[in-house]
Amino acid sequence: MSAPDPVRDGIPCLLMRGGTSKGAYFLADDLPADPAERDELLLRVMGSPDPRQIDGIGGAHPLTSKVAVVAPSTAPGFDIDYLFLQVGVDTATVGDAQTCGNLLAGIGPFAVERGLVAAAGALTSVRIRLLNTGDAATAVFATADGLPDYAGDAAIDGVPGTASAISLEVGGGDDKPLLPTGNLIDEIDGHTVTLIDNGMPVVLLRGDEFGIDGGEEPAQLEADAELVARVERIRLAAGPLLGLGDVTHQTVPKMILLSPPRTGGAVSTRAFIPARVHTAIGVLMAASVAAAVRIPGTVAHEIAGPSGADAGADAGDTVIEHPSGSFPSRVRVTRDADGTWRATSFSLRTARKLFDGRVFPRPRL
Ligand code: NQM
């Protein structure tokens, strides 16, 4: 018998909606161990580079061109290791500089589907190590008859209908600072910004400095070439300040324009991720905005209405408005004796298994 050939034999793959994103979930053992070989294969799986990803399973948008690589954890105290990979749509790039809180919602169910974790009655809890960031997550989700139960009555904005609730708690797995520059605000290119990383490094900008009121459609912002160039200039300058180095070819930091709330939340957001504008907001992006809302002196705290900013460090949800509704993000913000801010986030997501089978990568071009 000849050696397995992915093009001929396919690779086991589960397609899952995780929150407001969609991705291909793989067991690490089913992919090449060498990162360069793995990435080359994933480009062929997703059909990149091609704006339509027509010859692959990518969805022609960064939010649907995502991959999760999952393995039993090698670290004490964790069940699962999760590596997130962002596959470029029209670029031949595979990036591991960020994690994804939306695909994170599908990791626990996938681990049960693949037998890495046993379902534990009606609710199963999985400890997940986020390999991209060093953070730690606990996912709690419904299981029935030994399998994930995807059906339920939880609704999240940006996804039609309802599904079973998945609760995600994410916190610092290492000593990464919440405010990487140590400052509540910094000046970049004449703009007052807050640089914050509560699971996702983001640059918070005042929308009014860019002529934005928080009611814009993503496509409208993407079409504004001057705005896009200004935001990108600030992003490139923010990269080194956040300790990320040269971010020219990276998908972080995310750039979030903040405006006063329009529908009763804390702030309105429009997030450049960074080439496209998010149709909603990422889980950990929302957690980063929510943490800033809770810290007096940040750009977000200043813009937030009283319901967001004055609720105290340990209060309930901070409601982050976004283009397709709002995201309630619960953050616990604390301050050490030396003044260092720390945060943990709690989010509610849903996920759904869409397809389980073998994916057939296109042959090398
Ligand atoms: O911030 C978008 C998403 C994300 C990331 C992105 C995310 C998060 O909505 O936690 O989930 O990668 O820009 O999936």
Automatic annotation (TrEMBL):
GO molecular function, one term: isomerase activity
Assigned EC number: 5.3.2.8
Keyword Acetylation: no
Enzyme class per UniProt: isomerase
UniProt keyword list: Isomerase
Stretches that traverse the bilayer: none
NCBIfam families: OMA_tautomer
Family that this chain belongs to: Belongs to the PrpF family.
Protein name listed in UniProt: 4-oxalomesaconate tautomerase
Organism from which the protein derives: Microbacterium helvum
